[in-house]
Amino acid sequence: MGGLYGRQPQIYGQPDPGLVSPNVTTASNGTKYERAEPYLKVRITSLDRNRRDILVRFDAQTNLSNFTGTTYRNVSRSYYEFQQFYEAIIHNNPQTIIPALPLAQTSAPTDEEDDRIVKIMLQRWLTRICEDNILTSEEEVRSFIESDFGYQPTPATKRKTSSGFSLIRRSVPDEDEELQRARFELTKLETQFFDAAKAIDKLSKTRKSLSTSRSEMGNKLVNVATTEAHPPLGNALRKIGRAYHSLSDLDQAQGISECVIVGDTLGYQGLNARSAKETLQQRTSVLEEYQTAVKTTISKRRNIERLKASRSIGAEKVDEALQDLQEAERYEQILARRADGISQNLHKALARHKRLVTEDITAALIEHVRSSIMYERQHLRELETLRSDVSNAASKHIPAKPVTALRPPVVPPLEDFTRAPVPRPASGMDSRVPPPIGRTGSVPPPISSTMSDPLASRAAAYTPPSSAISPRPVSGISSSTMASPLLPQSPGAGPSSGPSSPVPRSAKSPRDEEYVC
């Protein structure tokens, strides 16, 4: 009885509580309140790598009832704590297949790329853990997220093992053929995945050696091109050498891509198959415990039958035998229900495991095909650029004539030496005095063709040493020409007595006669 008058307090318009709360509740005003589905979300914010271990920081948000809060910020866990958490949930939950924990290192060439891939893999692993309805109610999951000063797993209890020991162990009878077949298939898949990962690693090493060989071949072709006398062939060899360098880089990048995309994926799926196989082996151990409990119950019943057949029966022995039989039957029933529950949940977990493995391998193969097509296109593009150079390698080459000096675009005509020399003042005369002109006051006419003879020109320019001797007129030379001034003398030719005057015609020199002749 509660309340003032023996009634329970009630809010006006509140519906009567039922045995099972509905997902959708309607208020008095018609507003519908839908109960949120239970969820657990974890998002990794950062990943720091130190000398010893990896430190992972993440945020968590949940509405589960077994958690004390709803939001957890900046939770830090080391990779070693992740390993402890993984081993604890595998040991405590044999009824579900738990994905394998990703490795702390990948085949990425740089630390930044390695941290990025590890972060993506850990995020995907945590998401799959949180999506499992069996694991969300696990106490280890709550402890892993809520622990303030590091995670410490709960000590695992040791399971009972059979006391008998034999070299040839009798197999436990298993009525579930599907799970038994899945166990053998997972054992084969584990070996096949690891063998495929090793083959990819070997292929990557072969590509790296091919990359080194192509790089050396490119260097040799470039060196040969420098000594080639035929320029088109040398150009083709040089281009081929550079193409070999590009192909070497492509081979090295493709080898790394195959290791990261295909090799790491196949290696992780091998670990995943091993984890699923160990889960099925735990079910087998539960079946072994159940078979041991059945044998114990049978022995207790036989003990009761012996007590019934004996003549003297003690009450204490009968009560003790009945109590042992009841405990054996109760333990047998518990193990039977546990084995049945594990088998039913493993069917669902096995289907989910197959779906996740198929998605992971399909995504890896699609990414591998895309990267392979990209590298092959780049390979083809590098070879296409060599087509014109290789086709021109056998063409004839005419060497160009060496050019010693540049030829001017315009060549001026040669000077005309038939004109009279331009009169210039003597060294002792004033440069401001205009040159003398002829009697008619005009420029002297040009010398005729008869003066082209060097002897005649020397005779015309000769001046007798004595002013008393007048030169004899020479035939073919006009008087105006004889009256023209003399050519200028060099500074060392002797003293000058002023402006030149006409030489008297009375004197005559034998040398003049010789020149005239």
From TrEMBL:
This is PX domain-containing protein. One of its GO terms (biological process) is intracellular protein transport. Residues 38-148 form the PX domain. GO terms for cellular component: cytosol; endosome; retromer, tubulation complex. InterPro entries: AH/BAR_dom_sf (IPR027267), PX_dom (IPR001683), PX_dom_sf (IPR036871), VPS17 (IPR053055), Vps5_C (IPR015404). Residues 484-506 have a biased composition (Low complexity). It comes from Hermanssonia centrifuga. The lineage of its organism: Eukaryota, Fungi, Dikarya, Basidiomycota, Agaricomycotina. Residues 1-29, 399-517 are annotated as: Disordered. Signal peptide: none annotated. One of its GO terms (molecular function) is phosphatidylinositol-3-phosphate binding.
